[in-house]
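Students often ask why we bother encoding 3D structure as a string. The short answer is that it lets us treat folding as translation between two languages. Here is a chain of 146 residues written in the first language.
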Amino acid sequence: MLMRTDPFRELDRFTQQVFGATNSGTWSKPATMPMDAYRDGDEFVVCFDLPGVAPDAIELDIERNVLTVKAERRPNVGGDVQMQVSERPLGVFSRQLFLGEALDTDRIAAGYEAGVLTLRIPVAEKAKPRRITISGSESDRKKIQA
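And here it is in the second language, the structure alphabet:
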């Protein structure tokens, strides 16, 4: 259902973890967007942890079965503050999921509660299991009835 093959993103994440450097050259913890994904009946559910992100700072886009989640955590302190400790990453976080053809991307539902973005993606009707009836020829039916 879900394909997570983006080698460049994985390489970037690895180098950030090893070296701890951001694009600005400062040392910090890498910005991540942890997620869980599972199938629940006829739905595929994906949950992203986005604590401290306002709902209006989240963008969801889908193009050719690639779902992009972008969120921005903004500072919640004024400009005249002298920060003593700053461990929570700020800025823009982005993650892409490659969705399989078996999912109905036209009917994705999104909800945001308690810092968790939950996406519910229905399984496409064509991908659901179905029973196929077997029919025989007219002469075969007459033989069975006799």
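Translate back mentally: Confidence is low (pLDDT under 50) at residues 21-30. Keep this in mind for the problem set.
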